[in-house]
């Protein structure tokens, strides 16, 4: 029973990683773009535990109207210095799926960011190791 639960957990985590890693390219290919507005930029917590000093997490909240005219919001995280996130309030391009507008992201004009490639690779690795046949 424990082995079955472990396999279900690994399959679930692998699928989540694959979906999250592929979200930006899917939004670029099958999504819609609109102009949104960054409404809040806020520093979170204390200094990051990085090799580079003076680095902080920032939360960026944005709002946009979908194709039906309904107001939607989204949130993303960025890393910045103690005094600036590098993101200014104001207009921003937002990508979203018309059928599922809660799946949205700020358009950073990178088709496949490096961090998403790593997340996607980890998800695929989970799934490959999970379904790999053991040699007997």
What is the number of helical segments per DSSP (H or I, 4+ residues)? Answer: 2
Question: What radius of gyration results from the CA coordinates?
Answer: 18 Å
Shape: globular
Number of strands: 5
Main beta sheet: 5 strands, antiparallel
What does this structure look like?
35% of the residues lie in helices and 32% in strands. It starts with a helix and ends in a 5-residue tail after the last helix. The chain has 136 residues and is of the alpha+beta class. The radius of gyration is 18 Å and the shape is globular. Helix 1 packs antiparallel against helix 2. A five-stranded antiparallel sheet has the order 3-2-1-4-5. The mean pLDDT is 88.
Which short descriptors sum up this protein?
136 residues, single chain, globular, 5 strands, alpha+beta, 5-stranded antiparallel β-sheet
């Amino acid at each position: 029973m424990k082995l079955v639960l472990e396999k279900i957990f690994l399959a679930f985590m692998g699928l989540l990683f694959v979906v999250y890693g592929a979200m930006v390219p899917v939004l670029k290919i099958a999504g819609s773009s609109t102009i949104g507005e960054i409404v809040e930029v806020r520093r979170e917590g204390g200094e990051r535990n990085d090799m580079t000093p003076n680095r902080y997490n920032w939360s960026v909240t944005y709002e946009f109207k979908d194709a039906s005219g309904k107001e939607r919001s989204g949130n993303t995280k960025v890393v910045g210095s103690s005094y600036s996130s590098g993101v200014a309030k104001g207009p921003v391009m937002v990508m979203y799926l018309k059928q599922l507008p809660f799946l949205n992201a700020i358009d950073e004009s990178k088709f496949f960011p490096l961090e998403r490639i790593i997340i996607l690779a980890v998800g695929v690795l989970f799934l490959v190791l999970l379904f790999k046949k053991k040699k007997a």
